[in-house]
Amino acid sequence: MVDKKEPKYVYRLLNESEKPERGLWAKNPKADISIQEHVETGSWGTESQFISTSATLGAVQQFARNSKSRRKRIVEINLTEVEKIPGNKIYDLSVERNRKMHLRSEKSLNFARKFQEVLIQGNVPPEWIEIQVKKKNS
């Protein structure tokens, strides 16, 4: 059942190596990392099977302002289409009851709430990605 608050589009601050024209993949699609560990350690922690996104453009822009990344490229992802791909799973942590179900620490709860985190487990084909905003270094 799709949550009524689940966004149709989500937003991602690309890392330096990501090329949206080739699609997006988790760092380690075969990993078995918990949602808790992924959110708490982020991209600087363990390699997980999740792709982090934000439910709103404003949340990802706030994340970008705090990012150490030199290149600030934000993409829009059509979540409705990505969710239809066999094997893909979506975890919408922008919804409080979903955060409470998957997250235990204050650090992870606060991070997921602040940046309206939505996790994609699977891949994002290039046809469902659009470069949304190009930001200069903050």
Q: SSE order in H/E notation?
A: EEHEHEHEHHEEE
Largest beta-sheet characterization:
3 strands, antiparallel
- Sum up the overall morphology in one term: globular
Helix content: 25-40%
Superfamily at the CATH H level? Heat-Labile Enterotoxin, subunit A
Structural class: alpha+beta
Q: What is the CATH architecture descriptor?
A: Alpha-Beta Complex
**What is the strand tally?**
8
Strand order of the largest sheet: 1-4-8
CATH topology: Heat-Labile Enterotoxin, Chain A
> Which stretches of 5+ consecutive residues score pLDDT under 50?
none
Please give the alpha-carbon distance between the first and last residues. Answer: 39 Å
Specify the CATH class: Alpha Beta
The percentage of residues in β strands lies in 25-35%
Q: Mean pLDDT across all residues, rounded?
A: 88
Protein name: DUF7587 domain-containing protein
InterPro entries: DUF7587
Q: How would you describe this structure to a colleague?
A:
This protein is α+β, with helices and mostly antiparallel strands. It has a single domain (9-135), classed as Heat-Labile Enterotoxin, Chain A (Alpha-Beta Complex), CATH 3.90.210.10. Helices cover 28% and strands 27% of the residues. It is built from 5 helices and 8 strands; from the N terminus they run E-E-H-E-H-E-H-E-H-H-E-E-E. The protein has helices at 35-41, 57-66, 79-83, 96-102, 106-114, and strands at 9-13, 24-25, 50-54, 72-78, 89-92, 117-121, 123-124, 129-135. The strands form 3 sheets. The chain has a 3-stranded antiparallel beta sheet with strand order 1-4-8. Helix 1 crosses helix 5. The chain is globular. The model has no long low-confidence stretch (mean pLDDT 88).
